[in-house]
Specification:
four-stranded antiparallel beta sheet, Alpha-Beta Plaits, 4 domains, 10 strands, PTS-regulatory domain, PRD
Length: 348
């Protein structure tokens, strides 16, 4: 009897439908078009954030750090409508490293000192004074500092060349102001709603949500692992699907969200984020033949033979390899005959 055509039935998947293969085709085919498109946009959109095929590869390979991390930080209270208050919140978030403030460094190995000449323009733009910078350096590196106009002298208790040079490198990398890992923070306004928010070129949401004025429930980053560490695997799964969808939409490629959700589900099904390659889902399949069919064929076969592994031939790949009927679609249907009916069959 035919099913009544309802909205729910239209969205339902038939029993034994190879949804994984369809999802792979649905993303893989438009992915071939993305190669040209992503390089065409290389100087425009990719300057802001990684897009196109490189971004898709970054996501499905589950890279620990995105090439261009970005965070969208919404504000609460008056700061969400007042540009001056938003600028103050942005300054608390904005990561300022010592390297951006330095104009010149002179190392005096005979006296055991490091003299740092600061950029007046950079100090003013960041709203810092030489005294504040010197105090921060002293606390961070446990060194003695003195200030003279726009110059800071760091006094070392050694004349060892290696130690002085190591200290100098630490000084240039030191975070003087803001949240480490938050990157450059810029205030923006939504043209449709007029809401003021902050965009930062970093993904330390753990530190960002501690800043007063930040709406903790609406902080978002394109770094899926940062979302996983802060909010858990369910949030990471949603972020992964969202990033995949956004990347495809940006390229004007239409892929049903259910295919992307299936990929995100498979990557996060173990409670952590795993890539789809040989070090992730493909390399951890229970079937020996399925693992061998992807990459490192000889390694998988030798290991399986050495440890006496058994392949139960329940998947698609392994059955194709040995020429058996695959257990999906019509291949999943089995014909059963009752014992009493067997007697009725007359042999020729």
């Amino acid at each position: 009897m035919a099913k009544t055509q309802t909205k729910e039935n239209n969205y339902a998947v038939e029993y034994s439908e190879p949804v994984g293969i369809i999802a792979a085709q649905s993303v893989g085919e438009p992915g071939t078009q993305m190669i040209l498109r992503s390089f065409h946009f290389a100087g425009i959109e990719s300057a802001i954030a990684t897009s196109g095929l490189p971004r898709i590869v970054e996501l499905v390979d589950a890279k620990k750090k995105p090439t261009t991390p970005l965070s969208t930080i919404y504000l609460e209270g008056p700061a969400s409508k007042d540009i001056e208050l938003a600028e103050k919140v942005a300054k608390k978030i904005n990561e300022v490293r010592m390297g951006t403030l330095i104009r010149r460094v002179v190392e005096n190995f005979s006296k055991g000192t490091i003299r740092i000449l600061l950029s007046k323009q950079e100090l003013e733009s960041e709203g810092l004074t030489p005294g504040q910078v010197a105090d921060k350096l002293g606390k961070l590196l446990k060194v003695d500092t003195s200030v003279e106009k726009h110059a800071i002298t760091v006094k070392m208790h050694t004349k060892n060349l290696k130690e002085i040079r190591q200290t100098m490198v630490k000084i240039t990398k030191s975070v003087i102001n803001g949240i480490e890992g938050a990157g450059k923070a810029v205030v923006q306004t939504n043209p449709k709603t007029g809401e003021i928010y902050i965009v930062s070129a970093g993904s330390n949401i753990e530190g960002i949500i501690t800043v007063d004025g930040v709406d903790k429930s609406r902080v978002y980053t394109n770094d899926v692992f940062a979302v996983y560490r802060q909010f858990g695997v369910e949030a990471a799964r949603n972020a992964l699907a969202r990033e995949l969808k956004a990347t495809l939409d940006e390229q004007k490629i239409s892929v049903d969200i259910r295919h992307l959700l299936l990929i995100a589900d498979a990557m996060t099904s173990t409670g952590t984020i795993k890539g789809v390659g040989r070090h992730g889902l493909s390399g951890e399949k229970s079937s020996v033949f399925a693992r061998a069919a992807y990459e490192e064929t000889v390694k998988h076969l030798i290991n399986a033979a050495s440890f006496g592994e058994t392949d139960h031939m329940r998947g698609v790949t392994e059955n194709i390899l040995v020429g058996k009927q695959i257990p999906i679609g019509t291949g999943s249907v089995k014909l059963a005959i009752k014992k009493e009916d067997m007697s009725k069959i007359k042999p020729k």
